[in-house]
Write a structure and sequence with these properties.
Strand order of the largest sheet: 6-7-3-8-9
Strand content: 5-15%
Number of strands: 11
Distance between the termini: 39 Å
Largest sheet: 5 strands, mixed
Structural class: alpha+beta
Order of helices and strands: HHHHHHHEEHHHEHHHEEHEEHEHEEEHHH
Helix content: 40-55%
Radius of gyration: 24 Å
């Protein structure tokens, strides 16, 4: 019986590996697509931003820093047990990097390769040098729309080598405990003790009544950051870490990890190109979420400084006691203030300075402005100031529709569509009855529960979700 079980497991592993292969269709090789992909992503990742002039020093912007104990904690010697835990915490079946070995391989063969892995990782943390081959990276293109027709319709997800992931995981695990002390309450992503639901409920309340024709003067901005992770300037990020009192030893570890990758693009199962990056954080790198949150904290500090330096700034009337000017969840940014032009100008100047420093920029086509309770002339001034279009309601924030009135069936159509698309994708697959039941319980129910935890869903929606 044990040999039969082993044979089934071996067959399952073989089929899982085989399912990753995407064979080219019969015919000529489409070199044009490869060339276009290389050109597009090399322009994004392989272009550094010009020198920043006229901006204030980050050390003058960032006042709250990590403690000496936290700095020493991050720079302490790496232990063998820490390396072992980092390796075994990685998802076993994530797509491998260029070397072809995923975390599952290292876990199963740890008794053979464990000592060598430990030696490689220890060598990096002792010398601060990283073999370039270890930081070679595959860009897997994930469609953002059902029928992608151009390169901007793809999201580049990086597939890093497992040895590099172990290094990055160790650094990330050391950064994570320090974030609650240096990240302002306006950010809630990847910070221990802060929940996504709090941000959704708060935005839901602050966006109320924007559908009305009259009310207290107020302004809200939904800022879409264009290619946010891919555009972060390395120099800015390293300066930010130094301003937060990260020790030079830790900054050098991060610098080596950031600045040494080489990228190849996976197209139809083949790798194309081999180019260096000059900016950006890799989506798929264990460090990237925490580094991006630290980078976005500069915006929080700039906003606080600009507001403090301006006597005539007025907060959104519901945010006055909290002194809340914005909410940020990774690259989802909501900014709020009174509906006056002078208050909006403060937000604009802080945002422009942040863009100048960080290399990020707003996607004007996807950013929106919401105005209530101001004269038509003032409203037009605000629209011209930011260059954003007046947004339709409801807006989507963190996957949930932000409604300004009572929820109706049309507002719930994204939920119904998402459940329907999942069901249609399962119809042609050979699942047992138990397998289908498990999918419904674990996938469909979780989608509905996420919505229901933030909105009072209609009874009809509960019926459709069953």
């Amino acid at each position: 019986m044990s040999s039969y079980t082993l044979a089934l497991q071996t067959e399952e592993d073989f089929l899982r590996q085989k399912s990753r292969v995407q064979w080219l269709k019969a015919g000529d090789r489409d070199t044009h697509v490869k060339s276009e992909a290389i050109r597009h992503f090399q322009n994004i990742l392989g272009c550094s931003m010009p020198s920043r002039h006229g901006s204030r020093s980050l050390r003058n912007v960032i006042e709250k820093q990590i403690s000496n104990d936290q700095a020493d904690y991050m720079s302490r010697e790496v232990t063998n047990d820490e390396i072992h835990k980092a390796c075994f915490s990685l998802h076993p079946n994530k797509a491998p990097g260029p070397d072809g070995f995923n975390a599952h391989f290292f876990k199963k063969t740890w008794h053979i390769v464990g000592d060598d892995v430990i030696n490689v990782i220890q060598e990096f943390f002792h010398s601060g040098l990283l073999l370039k081959e270890l930081n070679a990276t595959i860009l897997a293109l994930v469609p953002k729309v059902p029928n992608p027709s151009k390169m901007t319709d793809f999201r580049p997800i990086t597939c890093c080598n497992t040895l590099y992931k172990i290094i990055a995981k160790i650094i990330a695990n050391r950064i994570k405990p320090c974030l609650p002390d240096i990240i302002s309450p306006s950010q809630s992503a990847f910070v221990a003790g802060r929940r996504i639901g709090d941000s959704i409920l708060l935005v839901q309340e602050l966006m109320r009544d924007y559908h009305k024709d009259a009310g207290r003067p107020k302004l809200a901005l939904k800022v879409d950051l264009m290619k946010a992770f891919d555009r972060v300037d390395w120099g800015f990020l390293l300066d930010t870490l130094a301003s937060f009192h990260f020790l030079l030893k830790v900054i050098n570890w991060i610098k080596v990890c950031l600045t040494t990758p080489k990228f190849s693009i996976s197209i139809n199962g083949e790798l194309a190109g081999f180019f260096s990056g000059k900016r950006g954080l890799r989506q798929g790198d264990p460090m990237s979420p925490y580094l991006f949150v630290i980078a976005m904290e500069v915006l929080s500090k700039l906003l606080a400084n600009h507001i403090m330096d301006t006597a005539n700034f007025k907060y959104h009337w519901r945010c006055d006691k909290l002194k809340l000017s914005h909410l940020s969840y990774v690259d989802d940014l909501i900014m709020l203030c009174h509906g006056s032009y002078h208050s909006a100008l403060v937000l604009k100047s802080a945002l422009d300075e942040f863009f100048l420093l960080s290399g990020l920029c707003a996607n004007h086509a996807k950013s929106n402005i919401f105005i209530l309770g101001v004269p038509v002339a003032v409203g037009q001034q605000l629209i011209n100031l930011f260059g954003y279009s007046v947004g339709p309601l409801p807006i989507r924030y963190l996957g949930i529709p932000i409604i300004s009135s009572k929820l109706n069936l049309r507002d719930c159509s994204p939920l119904v569509d998402k459940v329907s698309s999942r069901l249609s994708s399962w119809l042609n697959r050979c699942f047992s009855f138990a397998g289908r039941l498990q999918l419904i319980i674990s996938v469909l129910t979780s989608i509905q529960v996420f919505w229901a935890s933030h909105l009072y869903l209609l009874k009809r929606i509960f019926f459709l979700g069953k």
